[in-house]
Amino acid sequence: MKKFAIIFTMCLLPVLSFASGHVKVRWEMGKEGMVNGNYTAQLTITNVSDDILDHNWQFYFNQVSRHVKVPQNSKVDLKEVAAAYFQICPNEKYEPLAPGESLVVDMAMPGPYMNVSYTAMGGVFVPDSDMSHAIAVKIELAPLVYKDIYHDRDITEPNGTNLYDFNAQLSSDYKGICCYDIFPAVKQLSLTGGYTNVSKYASIVAAPGMERASRFLKRELMSRGIIEGNGLKIQLILDNAIAAGKEYYKLVVRNGSVTITAASDVGALNGVKTFIASLDHRKGHQIENAIINDYPDMEYRGFMLDIARNFTNYEGCKRLIDLFSYYKINKFQFHFSDDEAWRLEIPGLPELTEVASRRGCAYDDKDYLPQVFDGNGDPDDLQNSANGYITRDQMIDLIKYAHERGVEIIPEFDTPGHSRAAIIAMRARYRKYAGNDDVLANQYKLWDDDIDLNFPTDLRYKDNVLNVAQPGVYNFVFKVIDEIEAMYREAGVPLLTMHMGGDEVPAECWNGSPVIQAYMTQNNLKSTHEVSEEYVVKVSDYLKSKDIAMGAWQEVGLNHSDAHNALIAPRFSGVSAWSTLGKSADTPIKLANAGYRTIVSNVSNLYFDMAYSWNPYEKGLMWGGAVTEYDVWASQPRDLYRMIRHERNGTPIDVVRAGDGRLPLEKPQNVIGMQGQLWAETIRNFDQVQYAILPRLFGLSHRAWNTTIEWDDNKPVTYTAAQARFNAKVGAELCIVNRHGYNFRLGQPGVKIENGMLLINKQYNAEKVRYTLDGSEPINDSPEWTAPVAVDDNVKVVKAKAFWLSHTSLTTYLNR
């Protein structure tokens, strides 16, 4: 899933104080830009106490970088205490800081600087080497300067001029067709003339078998102030003779009545959702009379949320289920376990939540996990996204809640890699029973004590892979499967798919294990690759015995023999193809051709944790490049070599010839869907979850439902026009999600100066753009741009920001 992993690890003893009173710390981007392949930065540590800061203090911080170095003449030593978690200590060159004095620590990190997510964070100051006196320190971020950050970087800088040119392409007079102009777009719409009034009353008649759709309809109408009574007549009709598929529906609105006809309640739910969306898009108290015939092109329309790296709680998950349901996303992959935390209560294994759902300052992993991805060091602070889990009762409720809304929750229990949190939790269990009851101590043993842990890994963990030769691994995996199946059973919803991960297991991870070597001899296995295959066979055997299909990431379906694929592929409900960069562009095609039901989940279009742009203040990862709502919408899951329209640095790709000479797709029927992913390394709260999802979710909803593109790749002008229409629809839809209380991202305005006149444009027509000419940040009281403004030569920087629906964009800069 992740070829660029970010790991911040806090260690040492629990933080007992969380109020800074000793030092102030500031991080600043290096002014000289790239130096010998590194970017540079400074940490300025200022003594704000009344005492001299002597030699015995320490400072700890997280940094998104493989390495951080200080120059040889530095007055401090910098040590990587754990992966991407660093300690600063004074050395013999250090001179004590009097009150008010500062120490500047020069640092160098490999590669170009990306954005604010790559700055130092998670600071902890220890004033006297006594870790019980540790103090959480918020690291201040100095202003970032574009020209320094983009030095020697081969990308298109998101400055005012470039944004102006892009926004100009979005200009459109498209204002929608009618109230049925929704996401996802309906297949066939015929307006039949006239209108149907919608009052505060409606009567519903539902055929047997339509109970779920009827309940959903009543709830949604009531939330919009429409209650049962004489008024609009709504009928849900079951017609088993419809041959268009279980998700097909026909919606007819005519002269005061609404009929929804479908072959199943799944189809009826789709029709109800379209009708509800039409109410949200209506003007006044009327909707147009119409006939709609509609169905999805792809059976799997999914979204994966990572709640392990940083936690989204029960209420947040419910809000997201509402959102997915509204836009006809029918699969919710629930990623509750990873290296950095375990987030689901499992009866009989309390250590998974007592230890592995908590992160804070610690010397070791005995009581809780090291803090990662920022935080205040307190493992019991449930307001911090580092901590928390979904209880068993909450999970049962989420399963029922999602099912009622036509969304299937697919739990993801990532194995055999990405399992550090589970391993740490079961080590705690081992210590609890060791010496008293060795049977219980070893019951869920997931590791080999004698393994050589020097295998390389992109994730920088050396202990995050289950040792699959241990019997305890299967006891553990089957126990978790059984407990989750019991939750579904209690919810009254079948567990159809259990996602088992399977990604990013280092090839060398078991080479040093005597237990693995003995296992290979006993089972006549010639390589650790065959060990991995055997693990998948065993787990899928167990799931198959319970009539549960298996889900996995692409690694589980790659580089196997035809015989192995023939055995395993039918057991999978879907395999997600995430890597389509460079030579991996044919990954989903290899999977489909090998017989795996393939879900297009590629980073370049569908990783919602990538930053929206290269703006240094835009949070998110960048290893897959920037991913905008337009990249999601422009996906072509039926023509996979045309998924990506530009390189990571923004260079356009000739999509017409992108597939020339490449592996052909021989089994297109195996490409069953699309899925958006939100990994949570850079997420800190639920507002950021929503910001990352919206408006990108509109593109996913539309393209998974309608795979036929709205342009001709041989005529670029048609793509530009289609993108402008999509943008206009997005602007209208943001009004809807804002009304429902969701956060979203607002794009930046464009700025340029032409013939001495300031010109500004914007992403959506309804926005207001405010600007400054004195270098200050635009605020609500700044001048609003409505027409060209004369700008003299003394103005060195123009700043502009969009304001709309109580949201603001990032600031656009134009340096002169």
Q: Output the strand order for the largest sheet.
A: 17-18-21-22-23-24-25-26
CA-to-CA gap between the ends?
Answer: 42 Å
Q: Overall pLDDT, averaged?
A: 92
Q: What is the strand content?
A: 15-25%
Q: How many strands appear in the DSSP assignment?
A: 33
Residue runs with pLDDT of under 50 for 5 or more positions:
3-20
How large is the radius of gyration?
28 Å
Biggest sheet details? 8 strands, parallel, barrel
Estimate percent helicity: 25-40%
Outline:
This protein is α/β, with parallel strands linked by helices. The chain is 25% helix and 23% strand.
Report what the structure shows.
- The protein is an alpha/beta fold and 816 residues long.
- 25% of the residues lie in helices and 23% in strands.
- The protein has 19 helices and 33 strands.
- The strands form seven sheets. The chain has an eight-stranded parallel β-barrel with strand order 17-18-21-22-23-24-25-26, surrounded by six helices.
- Helix 5 runs parallel beside helix 7.
- The N terminus is likely disordered.
Features:
single chain; 816 residues; alpha/beta; 8-stranded parallel beta barrel; 7-stranded mixed β-sheet; 23% strand; disordered N terminus
What is the topological layout?
Elements: E1 23-35, E2 38-47, E3 58-62, E4 76-82, E5 85-90, E6 102-110, E7 121-126, E8 135-137, E9 140-141, H1 146-149, H2 160-169, E10 188-197, E11 201-206, H3 211-223, E12 227-228, E13 232-238, E14 249-254, E15 257-262, H4 265-281, E16 286-294, E17 300-306, H5 314-326, E18 331-335, H6 351-354, E19 359-360, E20 369-370, H7 392-404, E21 408-415, H8 420-433, H9 438-443, H10 471-491, E22 497-501, H11 514-523, H12 528-545, E23 549-553, H13 562-568, E24 572-577, H14 587-593, E25 598-600, H15 603-606, H16 629-633, E26 671-678, H17 686-693, H18 696-705, H19 716-739, E27 750-754, E28 757-761, E29 768-772, E30 789-790, E31 797-804, E32 807-808, E33 812-815
Parallel strand pairs: 1-9, 11-12, 11-13, 13-15, 17-18, 17-26, 18-21, 19-20, 21-22, 22-23, 23-24, 24-25, 25-26
Antiparallel strand pairs: 1-2, 2-6, 3-5, 3-7, 4-5, 7-8, 10-16, 14-15, 14-16, 27-28, 28-30, 29-31, 31-32, 31-33
Helix pairs in contact: 3-4, 5-7, 7-10
